[in-house]
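name: query_chain
kind: protein
chains: 1
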Amino acid sequence: MAQNVIINGVTYAEVPEVDIPKAGGGTAKFYDASGADAAAGNVLDGKKFVGSSGLDTGSMANNGSVSGEIETKAGTVTIPAGYTSGGTVGIKASAVSDLTSATLLQGKEVLGVQGTLALPTISQDSTTKVLSIA
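structure:
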């Protein structure tokens, strides 16, 4: 963010940075960091950043790729706090191996599988008084 800067009594308006020659060559660059709002926990562990109070080091964990499998209906996969580069979470194959259209009631859908299992119908023959299940 550009600021008004006073050098030797002269005001320079909207200065985005100040370059000062260093002894032995090179230049030191100074930027206005008063609007910085990153904290050590927002920056990867070991990485240096300039905050509003100067140079600081990050402390956010780098977890890399995080993956997991859900094994039960109430199962969860815990993603640790910090940075992740992606990953996958899926339902464990053995947890759904019996999930077929024939094992689900007709009209029901679970995880994209449409049920085809029909409920039996019960009828009574009025002369023999026998229940038949079809």
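note: The chain has a mean pLDDT of 88.
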